[in-house]
Protein backbone atom coordinates (compact mmCIF):
# COMPACT_ATOMS: atom_id res chain seq x y z
CA UNK A 1 0.00 0.00 0.00
CA UNK A 2 1.45 3.33 -1.06
CA UNK A 3 1.54 6.66 0.77
CA UNK A 4 -1.60 7.86 -1.04
CA UNK A 5 -3.54 4.80 0.13
CA UNK A 6 -2.35 5.23 3.70
CA UNK A 7 -3.45 8.87 3.67
CA UNK A 8 -6.84 7.94 2.21
CA UNK A 9 -7.42 5.31 4.90
CA UNK A 10 -6.40 7.67 7.67
CA UNK A 11 -8.90 10.25 6.40
CA UNK A 12 -11.86 7.90 6.06
CA UNK A 13 -11.28 5.64 9.05
CA UNK A 14 -14.35 5.76 11.26
CA UNK A 15 -16.24 7.99 8.83
CA UNK A 16 -16.93 5.84 5.76
CA UNK A 17 -18.29 2.39 5.04
CA UNK A 18 -16.06 1.53 2.06
CA UNK A 19 -12.85 2.65 0.38
CA UNK A 20 -11.01 1.48 -2.76
CA UNK A 21 -7.21 1.25 -2.63
CA UNK A 22 -4.54 0.71 -5.26
CA UNK A 23 -4.64 -2.72 -6.82
CA UNK A 24 -2.88 -5.03 -9.27
CA UNK A 25 -2.54 -4.86 -13.04
CA UNK A 26 -1.97 -7.93 -15.16
CA UNK A 27 -0.74 -7.82 -18.74
CA UNK A 28 -2.02 -10.29 -21.31
CA UNK A 29 -0.11 -13.58 -21.21
CA UNK A 30 0.30 -16.63 -23.35
CA UNK A 31 -2.23 -19.43 -23.21
CA UNK A 32 -1.49 -21.71 -20.26
CA UNK A 33 0.55 -19.12 -18.36
CA UNK A 34 0.09 -18.54 -14.63
CA UNK A 35 0.85 -15.10 -13.22
CA UNK A 36 0.63 -13.89 -9.60
CA UNK A 37 0.74 -10.49 -7.90
CA UNK A 38 0.98 -9.70 -4.19
CA UNK A 39 -0.88 -6.81 -2.57
CA UNK A 40 0.27 -5.77 0.90
CA UNK A 41 -1.17 -3.11 3.15
CA UNK A 42 -1.99 -1.88 6.61
CA UNK A 43 -5.48 -1.16 7.93
CA UNK A 44 -5.63 1.21 10.90
CA UNK A 45 -7.81 0.71 13.95
CA UNK A 46 -11.21 2.12 12.95
CA UNK A 47 -10.78 1.18 9.28
CA UNK A 48 -13.85 1.30 6.99
CA UNK A 49 -16.18 -1.70 6.99
CA UNK A 50 -15.03 -2.74 3.51
CA UNK A 51 -11.82 -2.16 1.57
CA UNK A 52 -11.64 -2.96 -2.14
CA UNK A 53 -8.49 -3.94 -4.01
CA UNK A 54 -8.97 -3.54 -7.79
CA UNK A 55 -7.52 -6.24 -10.05
CA UNK A 56 -7.15 -5.51 -13.77
CA UNK A 57 -7.93 -8.80 -15.51
CA UNK A 58 -6.86 -9.09 -19.18
CA UNK A 59 -8.47 -11.18 -21.90
CA UNK A 60 -7.87 -14.91 -22.01
CA UNK A 61 -8.02 -15.73 -18.30
CA UNK A 62 -9.42 -19.15 -17.42
CA UNK A 63 -9.30 -18.92 -13.61
CA UNK A 64 -8.75 -16.33 -10.89
CA UNK A 65 -7.41 -17.52 -7.53
CA UNK A 66 -6.96 -15.48 -4.36
CA UNK A 67 -5.13 -16.27 -1.13
CA UNK A 68 -4.68 -13.98 1.85
CA UNK A 69 -3.23 -13.69 5.33
CA UNK A 70 -3.04 -11.07 8.06
CA UNK A 71 -1.29 -10.58 11.38
CA UNK A 72 -2.87 -11.30 14.75
CA UNK A 73 -0.97 -9.31 17.37
CA UNK A 74 -1.59 -9.68 21.08
CA UNK A 75 -4.25 -7.35 22.46
CA UNK A 76 -5.32 -6.47 26.01
CA UNK A 77 -7.90 -8.75 27.60
CA UNK A 78 -11.40 -7.76 26.51
CA UNK A 79 -10.16 -5.98 23.36
CA UNK A 80 -11.10 -7.42 19.95
CA UNK A 81 -8.12 -8.56 17.90
CA UNK A 82 -7.75 -8.76 14.13
CA UNK A 83 -10.36 -10.58 12.06
CA UNK A 84 -10.48 -10.06 8.30
CA UNK A 85 -13.21 -11.31 5.95
CA UNK A 86 -12.81 -11.71 2.19
CA UNK A 87 -14.85 -11.98 -1.01
CA UNK A 88 -14.75 -10.81 -4.62
CA UNK A 89 -16.74 -8.86 -7.21
CA UNK A 90 -16.25 -9.18 -10.96
CA UNK A 91 -15.99 -6.55 -13.70
CA UNK A 92 -19.63 -5.49 -13.27
CA UNK A 93 -18.69 -3.54 -10.15
CA UNK A 94 -19.14 -3.35 -6.39
CA UNK A 95 -22.24 -1.15 -6.15
CA UNK A 96 -24.70 -1.99 -3.36
CA UNK A 97 -27.09 -4.62 -4.64
CA UNK A 98 -24.38 -7.03 -5.71
CA UNK A 99 -24.66 -7.04 -9.50
CA UNK A 100 -20.98 -7.98 -9.71
CA UNK A 101 -21.03 -10.36 -6.73
CA UNK A 102 -19.02 -13.55 -7.28
CA UNK A 103 -18.58 -14.86 -3.76
CA UNK A 104 -17.88 -14.39 -0.09
CA UNK A 105 -16.28 -16.67 2.49
CA UNK A 106 -15.94 -14.26 5.39
CA UNK A 107 -13.08 -15.38 7.61
CA UNK A 108 -13.73 -19.09 7.04
CA UNK A 109 -11.25 -19.66 4.18
CA UNK A 110 -7.78 -18.33 3.42
CA UNK A 111 -8.06 -18.96 -0.33
CA UNK A 112 -10.56 -19.47 -3.14
CA UNK A 113 -10.72 -19.82 -6.91
CA UNK A 114 -13.27 -19.14 -9.62
CA UNK A 115 -13.51 -20.41 -13.19
CA UNK A 116 -16.34 -20.93 -15.63
CA UNK A 117 -16.47 -24.63 -14.76
CA UNK A 118 -16.28 -24.54 -10.97
CA UNK A 119 -15.70 -22.41 -7.90
CA UNK A 120 -14.77 -22.84 -4.27
CA UNK A 121 -17.88 -23.26 -2.08
CA UNK A 122 -19.18 -19.79 -1.24
CA UNK A 123 -18.27 -18.53 -4.72
CA UNK A 124 -20.11 -18.59 -8.04
CA UNK A 125 -18.75 -20.36 -11.09
CA UNK A 126 -18.78 -18.37 -14.32
CA UNK A 127 -16.51 -16.83 -16.94
CA UNK A 128 -13.55 -14.77 -15.78
CA UNK A 129 -14.18 -11.81 -18.07
CA UNK A 130 -11.73 -9.01 -18.78
CA UNK A 131 -12.11 -5.82 -16.77
CA UNK A 132 -11.61 -4.52 -13.26
CA UNK A 133 -12.42 -7.06 -10.59
CA UNK A 134 -12.32 -6.16 -6.88
CA UNK A 135 -11.11 -8.27 -3.99
CA UNK A 136 -13.29 -7.21 -1.05
CA UNK A 137 -11.74 -7.15 2.40
CA UNK A 138 -13.99 -6.80 5.42
CA UNK A 139 -12.05 -5.85 8.55
CA UNK A 140 -14.55 -7.30 11.00
CA UNK A 141 -12.46 -6.19 13.99
CA UNK A 142 -9.09 -4.42 14.02
CA UNK A 143 -6.62 -4.46 16.90
CA UNK A 144 -5.39 -1.15 18.37
CA UNK A 145 -2.08 -1.72 16.55
CA UNK A 146 -3.89 -2.01 13.21
CA UNK A 147 -3.76 -4.91 10.79
CA UNK A 148 -1.13 -5.89 8.21
CA UNK A 149 -2.48 -7.98 5.34
CA UNK A 150 -1.15 -9.71 2.23
CA UNK A 151 -3.35 -10.74 -0.70
CA UNK A 152 -2.01 -12.91 -3.53
CA UNK A 153 -3.95 -12.85 -6.79
CA UNK A 154 -3.18 -15.53 -9.38
CA UNK A 155 -4.51 -15.59 -12.95
CA UNK A 156 -4.37 -18.78 -14.99
CA UNK A 157 -4.71 -18.25 -18.73
CA UNK A 158 -6.37 -20.65 -21.13
CA UNK A 159 -9.66 -21.66 -22.70
CA UNK A 160 -12.54 -20.62 -20.43
CA UNK A 161 -14.61 -23.81 -20.42
CA UNK A 162 -18.38 -23.85 -19.87
CA UNK A 163 -20.50 -23.21 -16.78
CA UNK A 164 -22.75 -26.08 -15.64
CA UNK A 165 -26.49 -25.43 -15.54
CA UNK A 166 -27.68 -24.85 -11.97
CA UNK A 167 -30.02 -27.46 -10.51
CA UNK A 168 -32.29 -25.91 -7.88
CA UNK A 169 -34.59 -27.69 -5.43
CA UNK A 170 -38.29 -28.07 -6.35
CA UNK A 171 -40.85 -25.95 -4.51
CA UNK A 172 -42.98 -28.87 -3.40
CA UNK A 173 -42.52 -32.27 -1.78
CA UNK A 174 -45.05 -35.08 -1.42
CA UNK A 175 -46.34 -34.00 1.99
CA UNK A 176 -49.51 -35.05 3.79
CA UNK A 177 -51.89 -32.32 2.66
CA UNK A 178 -53.00 -29.95 5.43
CA UNK A 179 -50.86 -31.07 8.35
CA UNK A 180 -48.10 -30.16 10.80
CA UNK A 181 -44.65 -29.94 9.20
CA UNK A 182 -41.33 -29.62 11.03
CA UNK A 183 -38.58 -27.39 9.70
CA UNK A 184 -35.20 -25.86 10.47
CA UNK A 185 -34.75 -22.59 8.59
CA UNK A 186 -31.27 -21.50 9.70
CA UNK A 187 -28.48 -23.86 8.64
CA UNK A 188 -24.90 -23.59 7.39
CA UNK A 189 -22.70 -25.87 5.28
CA UNK A 190 -19.24 -25.62 3.75
CA UNK A 191 -20.72 -22.98 1.43
CA UNK A 192 -20.15 -20.47 4.25
CA UNK A 193 -18.71 -21.17 7.69
CA UNK A 194 -20.25 -24.59 8.31
CA UNK A 195 -18.24 -27.80 8.62
CA UNK A 196 -20.86 -30.11 7.18
CA UNK A 197 -21.52 -30.74 3.50
CA UNK A 198 -25.06 -30.36 2.16
CA UNK A 199 -25.27 -34.18 2.03
CA UNK A 200 -24.43 -34.39 5.73
CA UNK A 201 -26.97 -31.68 6.61
CA UNK A 202 -29.70 -33.43 4.61
CA UNK A 203 -28.95 -36.69 6.42
CA UNK A 204 -29.03 -34.91 9.80
CA UNK A 205 -32.36 -33.26 8.91
CA UNK A 206 -33.93 -36.60 8.09
CA UNK A 207 -32.54 -38.13 11.30
CA UNK A 208 -34.10 -35.22 13.26
CA UNK A 209 -37.54 -35.94 11.77
CA UNK A 210 -37.69 -32.74 9.73
CA UNK A 211 -39.92 -32.24 6.71
CA UNK A 212 -38.22 -29.11 5.37
CA UNK A 213 -35.05 -27.06 5.74
CA UNK A 214 -33.80 -23.73 4.40
CA UNK A 215 -30.24 -23.20 3.17
CA UNK A 216 -29.05 -19.90 4.67
CA UNK A 217 -25.36 -19.36 3.98
CA UNK A 218 -23.71 -16.12 5.04
CA UNK A 219 -23.87 -13.47 2.30
CA UNK A 220 -23.85 -15.86 -0.65
CA UNK A 221 -26.21 -17.88 -2.82
CA UNK A 222 -23.68 -20.53 -3.83
CA UNK A 223 -25.48 -23.11 -1.68
CA UNK A 224 -28.75 -22.83 -3.60
CA UNK A 225 -27.57 -25.22 -6.30
CA UNK A 226 -25.71 -27.58 -3.97
CA UNK A 227 -28.59 -29.92 -3.03
CA UNK A 228 -29.13 -31.95 -6.20
CA UNK A 229 -30.01 -35.52 -5.30
CA UNK A 230 -30.51 -34.60 -1.63
CA UNK A 231 -34.15 -33.48 -1.63
CA UNK A 232 -37.01 -35.96 -2.01
CA UNK A 233 -40.62 -36.74 -1.22
CA UNK A 234 -39.70 -36.70 2.46
CA UNK A 235 -37.56 -33.53 2.54
CA UNK A 236 -38.18 -30.11 0.98
CA UNK A 237 -35.22 -27.75 0.62
CA UNK A 238 -35.96 -24.00 0.44
CA UNK A 239 -33.49 -21.35 -0.73
CA UNK A 240 -32.43 -18.44 1.43
CA UNK A 241 -29.51 -16.46 2.85
CA UNK A 242 -28.24 -15.13 6.16
CA UNK A 243 -27.40 -11.46 5.69
CA UNK A 244 -24.70 -10.52 8.21
CA UNK A 245 -24.56 -6.73 8.53
CA UNK A 246 -22.54 -4.86 11.15
CA UNK A 247 -25.78 -4.08 13.01
CA UNK A 248 -27.36 -7.50 13.14
CA UNK A 249 -28.06 -10.61 11.09
CA UNK A 250 -31.28 -11.45 9.29
CA UNK A 251 -32.62 -14.39 7.33
CA UNK A 252 -34.16 -14.25 3.88
CA UNK A 253 -36.29 -17.41 3.84
CA UNK A 254 -37.85 -19.17 0.88
CA UNK A 255 -36.63 -16.78 -1.80
CA UNK A 256 -36.50 -17.55 -5.50
CA UNK A 257 -33.36 -19.60 -6.25
CA UNK A 258 -30.35 -17.43 -6.99
CA UNK A 259 -31.73 -14.34 -5.21
CA UNK A 260 -28.77 -12.48 -3.68
CA UNK A 261 -29.21 -10.00 -0.81
CA UNK A 262 -26.46 -7.52 0.03
CA UNK A 263 -25.05 -7.16 3.53
CA UNK A 264 -22.72 -4.15 3.17
CA UNK A 265 -24.60 -1.52 5.17
CA UNK A 266 -25.49 -0.46 8.68
CA UNK A 267 -28.77 0.71 10.23
CA UNK A 268 -27.66 4.33 9.74
CA UNK A 269 -27.43 3.82 5.96
CA UNK A 270 -31.18 3.26 5.42
CA UNK A 271 -30.49 0.42 2.97
CA UNK A 272 -32.20 -2.37 4.90
CA UNK A 273 -35.76 -1.54 3.69
CA UNK A 274 -34.58 -1.76 0.09
CA UNK A 275 -33.41 -5.32 0.55
CA UNK A 276 -36.43 -6.44 2.55
CA UNK A 277 -38.55 -5.31 -0.40
CA UNK A 278 -36.32 -7.41 -2.66
CA UNK A 279 -36.96 -10.44 -0.44
CA UNK A 280 -40.71 -9.94 -0.66
CA UNK A 281 -40.54 -9.54 -4.45
CA UNK A 282 -38.64 -12.85 -4.53
CA UNK A 283 -41.44 -14.54 -2.60
CA UNK A 284 -39.56 -14.85 0.70
CA UNK A 285 -39.79 -13.83 4.34
CA UNK A 286 -37.62 -11.45 6.38
CA UNK A 287 -36.63 -12.83 9.79
CA UNK A 288 -34.18 -11.09 12.19
CA UNK A 289 -31.84 -13.79 13.52
CA UNK A 290 -30.59 -14.24 17.12
CA UNK A 291 -31.43 -10.57 17.84
CA UNK A 292 -29.91 -10.57 21.33
CA UNK A 293 -26.68 -12.37 20.47
CA UNK A 294 -23.86 -10.54 22.33
CA UNK A 295 -21.17 -11.00 19.66
CA UNK A 296 -19.77 -8.06 17.69
CA UNK A 297 -22.11 -7.07 14.87
CA UNK A 298 -24.85 -9.54 15.84
CA UNK A 299 -27.24 -7.50 18.00
CA UNK A 300 -30.31 -6.35 16.08
CA UNK A 301 -30.44 -2.57 15.41
CA UNK A 302 -32.83 -2.25 12.44
CA UNK A 303 -36.19 -2.45 14.18
CA UNK A 304 -39.00 -4.82 13.22
CA UNK A 305 -41.12 -2.75 10.85
CA UNK A 306 -40.18 -4.71 7.72
CA UNK A 307 -39.90 -8.17 9.27
CA UNK A 308 -42.31 -11.09 8.84
CA UNK A 309 -41.22 -13.12 11.90
CA UNK A 310 -38.39 -13.11 14.42
CA UNK A 311 -35.99 -15.87 15.46
CA UNK A 312 -36.64 -16.02 19.20
CA UNK A 313 -34.91 -19.37 19.78
CA UNK A 314 -31.47 -20.04 18.24
CA UNK A 315 -29.76 -23.35 19.01
CA UNK A 316 -29.75 -24.83 22.54
CA UNK A 317 -31.63 -22.50 24.92
CA UNK A 318 -29.40 -19.86 26.54
CA UNK A 319 -29.70 -16.53 28.34
CA UNK A 320 -29.61 -14.83 24.91
CA UNK A 321 -32.83 -16.64 24.00
CA UNK A 322 -34.40 -15.68 27.30
CA UNK A 323 -33.73 -12.02 26.43
CA UNK A 324 -35.07 -12.53 22.90
CA UNK A 325 -38.21 -14.13 24.31
CA UNK A 326 -38.85 -11.16 26.61
CA UNK A 327 -38.26 -8.69 23.77
CA UNK A 328 -40.57 -10.65 21.46
CA UNK A 329 -43.29 -10.86 24.08
CA UNK A 330 -43.18 -7.07 24.39
CA UNK A 331 -44.01 -6.88 20.66
CA UNK A 332 -47.32 -8.65 21.24
CA UNK A 333 -49.12 -5.37 21.77
CA UNK A 334 -51.84 -5.93 19.19
CA UNK A 335 -53.05 -8.51 16.74
CA UNK A 336 -52.34 -6.13 13.86
CA UNK A 337 -48.65 -5.54 14.58
CA UNK A 338 -47.31 -8.73 16.11
CA UNK A 339 -44.53 -10.88 14.66
CA UNK A 340 -44.56 -14.69 14.87
CA UNK A 341 -41.71 -16.42 16.68
CA UNK A 342 -39.42 -18.92 14.98
CA UNK A 343 -36.88 -21.40 16.33
CA UNK A 344 -33.91 -22.67 14.32
CA UNK A 345 -30.70 -24.54 15.06
CA UNK A 346 -28.16 -22.29 13.29
CA UNK A 347 -26.16 -25.52 13.16
CA UNK A 348 -22.64 -25.27 11.72
CA UNK A 349 -20.87 -28.50 12.65
CA UNK A 350 -21.04 -31.84 14.43
CA UNK A 351 -22.09 -31.34 18.02
CA UNK A 352 -24.68 -28.76 16.95
CA UNK A 353 -27.89 -30.66 16.33
CA UNK A 354 -29.89 -29.93 13.21
CA UNK A 355 -33.49 -29.44 14.35
CA UNK A 356 -32.58 -28.14 17.83
CA UNK A 357 -34.85 -26.25 17.87
CA UNK A 358 -37.34 -26.53 15.02
CA UNK A 359 -40.40 -24.61 13.89
CA UNK A 360 -43.49 -26.81 13.58
CA UNK A 361 -45.88 -25.31 11.06
CA UNK A 362 -49.54 -26.06 10.31
CA UNK A 363 -49.60 -25.62 6.53
CA UNK A 364 -51.89 -26.59 3.68
CA UNK A 365 -49.12 -28.60 2.01
CA UNK A 366 -45.41 -29.38 2.14
CA UNK A 367 -44.64 -26.64 -0.37
CA UNK A 368 -42.85 -23.31 -0.39
CA UNK A 369 -45.91 -21.05 -0.63
CA UNK A 370 -48.10 -22.76 2.00
CA UNK A 371 -45.19 -23.12 4.46
CA UNK A 372 -44.19 -19.46 4.22
CA UNK A 373 -47.82 -18.36 4.53
CA UNK A 374 -48.22 -20.43 7.70
CA UNK A 375 -44.99 -19.07 9.20
CA UNK A 376 -46.09 -15.50 8.43
CA UNK A 377 -49.49 -16.15 10.03
CA UNK A 378 -47.96 -17.65 13.19
CA UNK A 379 -49.64 -21.03 12.76
CA UNK A 380 -46.66 -22.65 14.44
CA UNK A 381 -44.91 -23.65 17.62
CA UNK A 382 -41.25 -24.26 18.45
CA UNK A 383 -39.82 -27.48 19.90
CA UNK A 384 -36.41 -28.79 20.85
CA UNK A 385 -36.98 -32.05 18.95
CA UNK A 386 -39.49 -34.01 16.91
CA UNK A 387 -40.35 -35.99 20.06
CA UNK A 388 -42.42 -33.08 21.35
CA UNK A 389 -45.80 -32.04 20.00
CA UNK A 390 -47.96 -29.22 21.36
CA UNK A 391 -51.62 -28.34 20.94
CA UNK A 392 -52.99 -25.04 22.23
CA UNK A 393 -56.58 -24.05 21.57
CA UNK A 394 -59.21 -21.71 22.95
CA UNK A 395 -62.97 -22.11 22.82
CA UNK A 396 -65.85 -19.95 23.98
CA UNK A 397 -69.05 -21.07 25.64
CA UNK A 398 -70.84 -20.01 22.44
CA UNK A 399 -68.96 -22.55 20.34
CA UNK A 400 -66.27 -20.39 18.71
CA UNK A 401 -62.74 -21.78 18.73
CA UNK A 402 -59.23 -20.79 17.66
CA UNK A 403 -55.68 -22.10 17.71
CA UNK A 404 -52.16 -20.80 17.08
CA UNK A 405 -51.99 -17.53 15.17
CA UNK A 406 -55.77 -17.20 15.13
CA UNK A 407 -58.20 -14.92 16.96
CA UNK A 408 -61.07 -16.24 19.03
CA UNK A 409 -63.84 -13.73 18.33
CA UNK A 410 -65.72 -13.20 21.55
CA UNK A 411 -67.24 -10.44 23.63
CA UNK A 412 -65.00 -9.06 26.41
CA UNK A 413 -66.82 -10.90 29.23
CA UNK A 414 -67.41 -14.19 27.41
CA UNK A 415 -65.93 -17.16 29.23
CA UNK A 416 -63.10 -18.76 27.27
CA UNK A 417 -61.56 -22.16 27.97
CA UNK A 418 -57.87 -22.50 27.07
CA UNK A 419 -56.57 -26.05 26.71
CA UNK A 420 -52.89 -27.02 26.40
CA UNK A 421 -51.86 -30.58 25.57
CA UNK A 422 -48.22 -31.65 25.29
CA UNK A 423 -46.90 -35.01 24.12
CA UNK A 424 -43.31 -36.15 24.54
CA UNK A 425 -42.34 -33.51 27.11
CA UNK A 426 -39.07 -34.18 28.95
CA UNK A 427 -39.22 -35.65 32.43
CA UNK A 428 -40.07 -33.07 35.07
CA UNK A 429 -41.17 -30.46 32.56
CA UNK A 430 -43.65 -27.76 33.54
CA UNK A 431 -46.40 -26.28 31.39
CA UNK A 432 -47.05 -22.54 31.45
CA UNK A 433 -49.84 -20.39 30.06
CA UNK A 434 -48.67 -16.82 29.46
CA UNK A 435 -50.78 -13.75 28.66
CA UNK A 436 -50.09 -10.05 28.18
CA UNK A 437 -50.03 -9.83 32.01
CA UNK A 438 -47.49 -12.61 32.42
CA UNK A 439 -47.61 -16.25 33.47
CA UNK A 440 -51.14 -17.07 34.65
CA UNK A 441 -51.09 -20.85 35.12
CA UNK A 442 -48.35 -23.44 35.67
CA UNK A 443 -48.67 -27.21 36.03
CA UNK A 444 -46.87 -30.47 35.53
CA UNK A 445 -48.23 -33.31 33.45
CA UNK A 446 -49.34 -33.50 29.83
CA UNK A 447 -52.33 -31.15 30.04
CA UNK A 448 -53.29 -27.76 31.44
CA UNK A 449 -56.74 -26.12 31.25
CA UNK A 450 -57.59 -22.54 32.23
CA UNK A 451 -60.67 -20.36 32.03
CA UNK A 452 -60.52 -16.63 31.37
CA UNK A 453 -62.21 -13.86 29.35
CA UNK A 454 -60.95 -11.59 26.53
CA UNK A 455 -61.18 -8.66 28.94
CA UNK A 456 -58.55 -10.32 31.14
CA UNK A 457 -56.24 -11.74 28.47
CA UNK A 458 -55.41 -10.21 25.11
CA UNK A 459 -53.67 -13.40 24.08
CA UNK A 460 -52.56 -16.73 25.50
CA UNK A 461 -49.39 -18.55 24.56
CA UNK A 462 -47.72 -21.64 26.02
CA UNK A 463 -44.28 -22.60 27.24
CA UNK A 464 -42.95 -26.04 28.14
CA UNK A 465 -39.82 -25.80 30.27
CA UNK A 466 -37.26 -28.19 31.66
CA UNK A 467 -36.85 -28.21 35.45
CA UNK A 468 -34.97 -25.16 36.71
CA UNK A 469 -31.45 -25.66 37.98
CA UNK A 470 -31.54 -25.62 41.75
CA UNK A 471 -30.31 -22.35 43.22
CA UNK A 472 -29.92 -20.64 39.84
CA UNK A 473 -32.87 -18.29 40.28
CA UNK A 474 -33.55 -18.69 36.55
CA UNK A 475 -36.42 -20.45 34.80
CA UNK A 476 -35.75 -23.83 33.27
CA UNK A 477 -34.58 -24.12 29.68
CA UNK A 478 -37.26 -24.13 27.02
CA UNK A 479 -38.44 -27.45 25.63
CA UNK A 480 -41.26 -26.00 23.51
CA UNK A 481 -43.19 -22.76 23.10
CA UNK A 482 -46.06 -21.54 20.96
CA UNK A 483 -47.14 -18.49 19.11
CA UNK A 484 -50.20 -16.83 20.66
CA UNK A 485 -53.89 -17.47 20.36
CA UNK A 486 -55.61 -14.09 20.39
CA UNK A 487 -58.81 -13.48 22.36
CA UNK A 488 -61.57 -11.04 21.55
CA UNK A 489 -60.56 -8.59 18.82
CA UNK A 490 -56.83 -8.90 19.60
CA UNK A 491 -56.64 -5.63 21.49
CA UNK A 492 -56.47 -5.01 25.20
Automatic annotation (TrEMBL):
Q: What is this protein called?
A: CehA/McbA family metallohydrolase
For this protein, the record's PANTHER family field holds: EXONUCLEASE (PTHR42924), POLYMERASE_HISTIDINOL PHOSPHATASE N-TERMINAL DOMAIN-CONTAINING PROTEIN (PTHR42924:SF3)
High-level lineage: Bacteria, Bacillati, Actinomycetota, Actinomycetes, Kitasatosporales
Instruction: Give the signal peptide range.
Output: none
Enumerate the InterPro entries for this protein: PHP_domain, Pol/His_phosphatase_N, Pol/histidinol_Pase-like
> Boundaries of each Polymerase/histidinol phosphatase N-terminal domain copy?
183-247
Q: Which residues form a coiled coil?
A: none
Q: Which NCBIfam families match?
A: CehA_McbA_metalo (NF038032)
Amino acid sequence: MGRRDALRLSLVAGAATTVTLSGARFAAAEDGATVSRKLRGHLPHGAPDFVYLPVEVPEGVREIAVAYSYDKPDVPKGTPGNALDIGIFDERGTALGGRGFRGWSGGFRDSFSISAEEATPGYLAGPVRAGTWHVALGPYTVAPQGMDYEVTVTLRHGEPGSTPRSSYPPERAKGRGRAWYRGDCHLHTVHSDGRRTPREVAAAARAAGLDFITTTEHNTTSGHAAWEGLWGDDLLVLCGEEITTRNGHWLALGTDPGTFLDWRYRARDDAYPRFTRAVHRAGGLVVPAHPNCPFVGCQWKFGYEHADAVEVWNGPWTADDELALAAWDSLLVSREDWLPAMGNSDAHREGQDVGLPQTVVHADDLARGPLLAAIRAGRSYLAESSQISVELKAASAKGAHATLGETLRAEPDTEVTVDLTVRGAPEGATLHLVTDEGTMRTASGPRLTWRTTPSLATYVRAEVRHPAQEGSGLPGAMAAMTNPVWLGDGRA
